[in-house]
């Protein structure tokens, strides 16, 4: 009986404990990537199960597997968030369109943006060809935009921003001829916001992982040195909410996480990762965040966020 309890404890609790401890690691790159999701507890459980297989029945194996699966679901839960107490919120739209240039796809996106009353739109994964079309179609509705590039400085990026309100003090953080981080002052009627939008590369190898981390360091430094009291960070950071880096990056900031990647038909939000982030400084409040399932042609979900800046 005591042996059975020990085995049960090992197979129920140890996978999650191993995941929690190893997700604290910042390197190497493959380890941080591997433990960016709590569903890694399932292969950890399977390894432990085979070590102890001679002491288990198949009913035990399946039962403990189900328990670990439920634990992973609970650890990864990041659905929509809604605070009904907000009044007259400011509305945001963020989306990584993944370089799709199909006429039907862009037309669908443009129609949605024209119909909705967003105050700020931040897009990533936008090609040069798509930028021209989006700017031509959307500037009558959103007269202020940041193209995400500077011919004078020979800087290019895949970001594109639109707003009802002006941008000033636009700064590109160079990495060669690329700019993964763009900062500006977003001039809302009530006050100026320190706006930081970014899209560092996906850490698919060590070099890209280092580039992503350098961009995140630039983000952290920019947040520290801004003269403004209110800051807003928006973008596909290619960093899971489960990463230990989050705690250091988000000092003084707050968020509500929504699992926005990958965009797989009929998949539940609980199986995704929160990598399309929206952080803001106190005392502003996030009223709601929800992913938009309309655009099936990207591997990301678009996310709508509403914020109360009245405080």
From TrEMBL:
UniProt-recorded name of the protein: Endonuclease
Organism the protein comes from: Colwellia marinimaniae
Biological classification of the source: Bacteria, Pseudomonadati, Pseudomonadota, Gammaproteobacteria, Alteromonadales
One GO molecular-function entry: endonuclease activity
Top-level division of the source organism's lineage: Bacteria
Domain Endonuclease/exonuclease/phosphatase: 95-300
TM segment ranges: 5-22, 34-55, 62-81
Keywords, comma-separated and alphabetical: Endonuclease, Hydrolase, Membrane, Nuclease, Transmembrane, Transmembrane helix
């Amino acid at each position: 009986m005591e042996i059975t309890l020990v085995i049960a404890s090992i197979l129920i609790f140890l996978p999650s404990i191993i995941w929690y401890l190893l997700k604290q690691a910042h390197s190497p790159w493959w380890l941080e990537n591997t433990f960016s999701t709590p569903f890694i507890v399932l292969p950890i459980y399977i390894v432990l199960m085979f070590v102890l297989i001679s002491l288990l029945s198949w009913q035990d194996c399946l039962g403990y597997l189900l328990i670990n699966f439920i634990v992973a679901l609970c650890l990864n839960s990041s659905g929509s968030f809604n605070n009904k107490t907000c009044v007259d919120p400011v509305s945001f739209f963020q989306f990584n369109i993944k370089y799709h240039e199909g006429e039907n796809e862009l037309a669908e996106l443009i129609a949605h943006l024209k119909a909705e009353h967003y105050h700020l739109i931040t897009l990533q994964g936008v090609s040069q060809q798509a930028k021209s079309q989006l700017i031509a179609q959307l500037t009558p509705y959103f007269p202020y935009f940041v193209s995400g590039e500077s011919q004078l400085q020979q800087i290019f990026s895949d970001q594109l921003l639109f707003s009802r309100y002006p941008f000033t003090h636009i700064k590109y953080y160079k990495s060669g001829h690329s700019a993964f981080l763009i900062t500006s002052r977003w001039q809302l009627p009530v006050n100026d916001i320190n706006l930081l939008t970014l899209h560092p590369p996906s850490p698919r190898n060590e070099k890209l992982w280092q580039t992503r981390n350098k961009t995140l360091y630039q983000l952290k430094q920019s947040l520290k040195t801004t003269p403004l009291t209110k800051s807003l960070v928006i973008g596909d950071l290619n960093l899971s909410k489960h990463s230990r880096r989050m705690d250091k990056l988000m000092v003084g900031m707050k968020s509500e996480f929504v699992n926005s990647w990958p965009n797989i038909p009929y998949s539940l939000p609980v199986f995704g990762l929160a990598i399309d982030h929206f952080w803001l400084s106190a005392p502003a409040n996030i009223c709601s965040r929800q992913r938009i399932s309309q655009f099936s042609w990207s591997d990301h979900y678009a996310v709508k966020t509403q914020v109360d800046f009245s405080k």
